[in-house]
Amino acid sequence: MRNHSFDVYQIELSAPSLCIFSFMGTPYQKFRGSGLSSVKQVNIDAEMLANYSVPPLALLSWLSGLVNVKSLTVSASTLQVLSFAPDYLKDEQLLPSSFMRSLKSLKVKLKPLSYGLSMALKIVMLDKELKAGLVPSSLMPNGILDLLLHNSPSADVDIVECSRIDDSFNHLAPLSSSLYPEFLQPSSNEHVVDGLERRMWHLKQVEEQTKKYVDLAMEAIVREREEMLSLKEHTMMLSKTVDVLQPQLRDARELVEL
Asked: Which domain of life, per UniProt (predicted)?
């Protein structure tokens, strides 16, 4: 599932045999049903374009519903989104005993944060950190890993460095050049209809694989576009601030000269 829209809020999930759950985007969706309880493998790359209360709460709700997950892979941005949750919800003493209770392995991908999430972190966390005399947060916020491992302290933890796009394409098999002759050259040992069906099957495999690459490429383009829009809005805000400060600075200089 990939989603950066705020339009989808509730999903009715009826998948008692669902084993793998993957998500990339801003977690606004709320799941109904018991489909998450059967999931064993989870991959989450969460984002957050502004300081909203919904994403961290939705993400915590998902994790609470994944009671039988054994393998969890999250990005650094996912940990940061979780860090926005209110402190009382992250109190390990209040966690239900079912929270991540079956976890065997936890993998964290330390890829650079998006511009939108970075700005949200600076706006929300900077004042708190300055008052506490702390250094700015790292890619892995304090306490979040402990939260995920609270009920499974013996789970294997793997922390890897990644680029922004990381290995999104790696799970796709490379397009084989041998597929093209398969549907360009008929075989003399088969019926013409069988040969046509075989070549059509190979062609559909290439088409499906190509669509997957296009979808991933479009996802990367959408992310970059959203970051550019956020940067543009931030620049406009700074310009307005400068416009307000310039007259004040001019007035202050005149007072000093007097």
From this structure: Eukaryota
Mean pLDDT, all residues of the chain = 75
Burial class for 146, CB neighbours closer than 10 Å (0-12, 13-18, 19+): exposed
Q: Could you read off the pLDDT of 65-100 as tens digits, one per residue?
A: 888 999 999 999 999 989 888 776 777 777 888 899
Read off the tokens for 99.
């929270």
Report how far Cα 126 is from the mean position of its chain's Cα atoms.
23
Vertex 208: Cα angle to 207 and 212 (nearest 5): 115
Domain boundaries, the chain: 1-167, 172-258
- Burial of 195 per CB tally in 10 Å (0-12, 13-18, 19+): middle
35 secondary structure, DSSP code: G
pLDDT digits (tens, 9 = 90+) for 136-170: 456 788 889 999 999 999 999 999 887 655 555 44
- Would you say 30 and 65 are in contact if contact means Cβ atoms under 8 Å apart? no
Give the separation between CA 110 and CA 139, rounded to whole angstroms.
7
- 3-class SS of residue 18: coil
Measured distance between the N- and C-terminal CA atoms of the chain, rounded to whole angstroms: 65
Nearest C-alpha neighbor of 68 from the set 92, 95, 35? 35
- Based on DSSP, count helices (H) and strands (E) in the chain, helices before strands: 6, 8
The beta strands (E) that lie in the chain are given as: 2-3, 10-12, 20-25, 30-32, 41-46, 71-75, 105-110, 156-161
pLDDT of 132 strictly over 80: no
